# Entry
Amino acid sequence: MNTSKIKIGIVAVAAAFMTLATSCKKEDMSMTKDATPEGAAPDKVEPGSLAIRMAASPMESAKMVNIEITGVEVQYMDGMKLGNWTGIAVTPKVYNMLKYTNGPLAILADLNNQIASGQIVRVRLTLGYHNSVITQDGRSHPLVVSQSNRIVVIGAKTIISKEQKALVDLKFNTMQSVSSEDGTYILTPSISLKGIQYIPVTNEQ
# Structure
């Protein structure tokens, strides 16, 4: 067998392995550079402004419908897929929803330059257990909510930016949410998107 041909073959195989290794290394570096943790805000993201508010529909048989909101979260887009939920710091509060049937809005969250810019697609509310109905005769009744009904997710595609404040308005559908069965009042929350507005950000905000 020709010795020179053997040497040439060995050199060719070694060169092929080196080329393959270099290609794999470049691919790994590229994938590492482009990947971001799911739901994580990109580096150096400008802070934006957002308010989440809620109105309600009336209920003639009640004087008050008290609903406790204990948590507010938003979900960003992460590239082409949904990211993780991002919690907003809120203090648990009981809202008499019948106060918000004709103009005023319950302010669930109000963030001025305190939330990452980007596109959010959904809002998630967590309800507490301190819920009640006061009927027209003045009697107070516990408003029972099951564990499975405490989480409400609402679609709300919204752009968060530093130039304008996004106002996400929700609607609590009272008649669909509150029912009575054998003297027990039951809460099955029905909350929908009422509308989205954008207002210029001012220095006072």
Summary: The first strand starts at residue 47 and ends at 56. Residues 177 and 188 are 5 Å apart (CA to CA). Confidence is low (pLDDT under 50) at residues 3-17, 19-42.
